[in-house]
Amino acid sequence: MSSETDVVIIGAGAAGLSAAKELARIGLTYTLVEGSHRIGGRAYSEEIAPGVWFDLGCAWLVGGGTNPFTTIADDLGITVDKDHSHMFLGENHRFQRNGVALNDDQRAACLRYYDKSYKAIAEAASQDQDVAISDVIDMDHAFAPPLLCSIASGWGMDIDQVSTADFASATGELGFQALHGYGNLVAAWGADVAVSLNARVDRIDWSGTGVMVETPKGTIRGRTVLSTVSTGILASGDIRFAPDLPDWKIESINNLPMGTENKMGVHFDTGVFGTDGRGHYSTWNDDGITAKVDASVMGLNTAAVFVGGRHGVWLEKQGQQACHDFAVDRVADIFGNHIRKHVNRTIVTAWNTEPWTRGSWACAQPGQAHQRDNLARTVDERLFFAGEATVYGGQGTCHGAYQSGIRAAQGIASQLNKR
Fold first, then answer.
1. How many other C-beta atoms are found inside a 10 Å radius of the C-beta of residue 77?
2. Are the CB atoms for 32 and 42 separated by under 8 Å?
3. Which domains, from first to last, does the chain contain?
4. Mean pLDDT, to the nearest integer, of 43-61?
């Protein structure tokens, strides 16, 4: 491990990797350290069946053709499904209540409620009313359950904890999927970056000139440090700063807590979805059980089941068997009980207790959307910050993290050039 460098980068997710590539392009030196055993961060794929990959983290190239990872995949010769993204659009979303698909009139009423709710959120944000989403939409509406579930899984928090301004600033449809995993795509793209793995950062000393970053593998001295770790890690105190971070920075971290999306993959030994069954679903019943289900549109015999917020955290704590049962039940709600005998394997996530992230992504609390700017601000011209939590528009996304790393690298170069 290098003992002196221009930039010490902490975290080898999309932000850290893109920053490293950009610094190399500019001509600055860096040392990139990662606490876990792999690169990619919250972009992570596992094989759920031979040759079939499941993304435990980011799964959609949000924005489709505008997503930088679409071009990266093309350049690397990695297959991205560009032919079925229309199935994730709102107008093609499918709804199941008590195991029965909504009829045409019910579906139209449901979509009108969604549209009215989204407009209310956008209007509040446009009037600088950065309040909880629960303050501006009709939570007692007959079709509130699927919308509340969708927001909880998409933001990792329930609607009383999600900022209207933060929600309104997010851009891009779900977009494309990588056939062999978005996580594998990110890992392939970052494979040429020098990374020191299993090198967690214990302490950052910025009391003197430059910075000293302490790891179990030794202390690295740099001119600057770029932290790309999650707000969950920053808030936990796992990394100690000497001296402490200023109050305004700590406030930004605490007001961008990590949400949790619980994601369960179910692989079947045969095609249980049928020719017309593949698509994106919301399913709920009158007992209060709700979920989103992706009956794989890429032609794979795999379903992904999503819940988030308090329910997602609770379900994770119940353990893998409870998650398995929940996921299989939700697929059965849509396709019938015959699917149960064809379940081959399940994979479940545990981002809330994942020691390297402590959550899925950062969610601004009501009234705190502006804290993303504060999180991105430099401290003493030496401590820089990047990651999806520092981004508007692409918050919570892999490409948002990627773009934040490039932005931070360019900011560091500008600062060092001034010196």
1. 7
2. no
3. 4-40+190-257+359-418 (3.50.50.60), 90-170+261-353 (3.90.660.10)
4. 96
What amino acid occupies position 362? A
155, 363 contact by CB (below 8 A): yes
Q: For the whole model, what pTM was predicted?
A: 0.96
In tens, the pLDDT along 96-151 reads 999 999 999 999 999 999 999 999 999 999 999 999 999 999 999 999 999 999 99
Query: For residue 368, which of 241, 248, 255, 246 has the smallest C-alpha distance?
Result: 255
**pLDDT averaged over the chain?**
96
- 299 falls in which pLDDT band (50, 70, 90)? confident
Residue in the structure block whose two tokens are 């900022």: 163
- Which residue(s) pair with 113 in the sheet? none
Listed in sequence order, the DSSP H helices in 212-308 are 231-236, 247-254
> Which residues are registered as beta bridge partners of 163?
132
Report the distance separating Cα 258 and Cα 208, nearest Å: 32
Bond from prior residue into 355 cis (ω within 30 degrees of 0): no
